[in-house]
């Protein structure tokens, strides 16, 4: 489900429990950001927390990166749609049959269906990491390959790094959504991310949505960090 306003910043609520997550959320404005619930918080606090966030007016990206056989994965995305989330994702490396099964299952939800996107190459991975799993192409080539597969399966877009955004927008078209983690303001720690970009550069490169976690959640003043990023990218 899509809000009438379209905030570009998605705050990754990577917290160990719902109390610190809600302490931050209660200071946030749904007109300025969306929220991402990932594996840690969902495993702790589950669907109830997602419903709480939605009742507070936020669009929720349920980032569970499903990767399983088509029957299991399509049932999982349907469960996410039942929850009313705005966006849900699977791994593109789950392959064509799995992605098509997910897309077809979500079509039964009509206008209420969440955006379905596929993870290409994790932003924490570089060329050496890909070689370690037997992929000798560069991240850029592997991301393009998986993005093409994803688009051919009829999904709404991909998770990629902003570094790949110009190539993907040219190859896949303007409507194919690019959701980009690995966003780092100039002064922020890189942490475990490898393929990174600043918020401004990412939007200029063609990112549709910026997924930002630690630069906001671990900042001494998370609200100020979000406001800084928001005013930096406003109008882009
Ligand atoms: O390729 C990917 C896919 C998902 N993520 C998720 O995004 C956030 C990024 O958090 P930061 O603290 O800003 O690094 C996190 O929840 C990841 O699970 C990603 O980083 N890369």
What report would you give on this structure?
The chain is of the alpha/beta class. The protein has one domain (9-235): Alpha-Beta Barrel (TIM Barrel), CATH 3.20.20.70. It has helices at 18-25, 39-55, 70-83, 96-107, 127-132, 139-152, 165-172, 199-205, 214-217, 222-233; strands at residues 9-12, 34-37, 60-66, 87-91, 115-119, 157-159, 177-180, 209-212. It has an 8-stranded parallel barrel with strand order 1-2-3-4-5-6-7-8, surrounded by 6 helices. Helix 6 (139-152) runs parallel beside helix 7 (165-172). The model has no long low-confidence stretch (mean pLDDT 97).
Task: Name the features.
236 residues, alpha/beta, TIM Barrel, eight-stranded parallel beta barrel, 10 helices, 8 strands, globular, binds the ligand O=c1ccn([C@@H]2O[C@H](COP(=O)(O)O)[C@@H](O)[C@H]2O)c(=O)[nH]1, OMPdecase_bac, OMPdecase, orotidine-5'-phosphate decarboxylase activity, OMPdecase_AS, pyrimidine biosynthesis
Topology at a glance:
Blueprint: E1 9-12, H1 18-25, E2 34-37, H2 39-55, E3 60-66, H3 70-83, E4 87-91, H4 96-107, E5 115-119, H5 127-132, H6 139-152, E6 157-159, H7 165-172, E7 177-180, H8 199-205, E8 209-212, H9 214-217, H10 222-233
Parallel strand pairs: 1-2, 1-8, 2-3, 3-4, 4-5, 5-6, 6-7, 7-8
Helix pairs in contact: 3-4, 6-7
The protein binds the ligand O=c1ccn([C@@H]2O[C@H](COP(=O)(O)O)[C@@H](O)[C@H]2O)c(=O)[nH]1.
Order of strands side by side in the largest beta sheet? Answer: 1-2-3-4-5-6-7-8
Report the average pLDDT across residues. Answer: 97
CATH architecture: Alpha-Beta Barrel
Bound molecules: the ligand O=c1ccn([C@@H]2O[C@H](COP(=O)(O)O)[C@@H](O)[C@H]2O)c(=O)[nH]1
Question: Count the strands?
Answer: 8
Fold-level CATH name: TIM Barrel
Query: How large a portion of the residues is in β-strands, by DSSP E?
Result: 15-25%
| Domain module count | 1
Give me the strand/helix succession: EHEHEHEHEHHEHEHEHH
Provide the gyration radius in Å: 17 Å
Residue ranges: pLDDT <50 for 5 or more in a row? Answer: none
CATH class: Alpha Beta
Please state the overall shape, judged from the principal axes of the Cα atoms.
Answer: globular
**End-to-end separation:** 24 Å
Tell me the major beta sheet. 8 strands, parallel, barrel
Quaternary state of this entry equals: single chain
The helix content, as a percent range, equals 40-55%
The number of helices is 10
Give the CATH superfamily: Aldolase class I
Q: Structural class of the helix and strand makeup?
A: alpha/beta
Domain Orotidine 5'-phosphate decarboxylase: 8-229
Active site: 63, 65, 68
InterPro entries: Aldolase_TIM, OMPdecase, OMPdecase_AS, OMPdecase_bac, OMPdeCOase_dom, RibuloseP-bd_barrel
EC number: 4.1.1.23
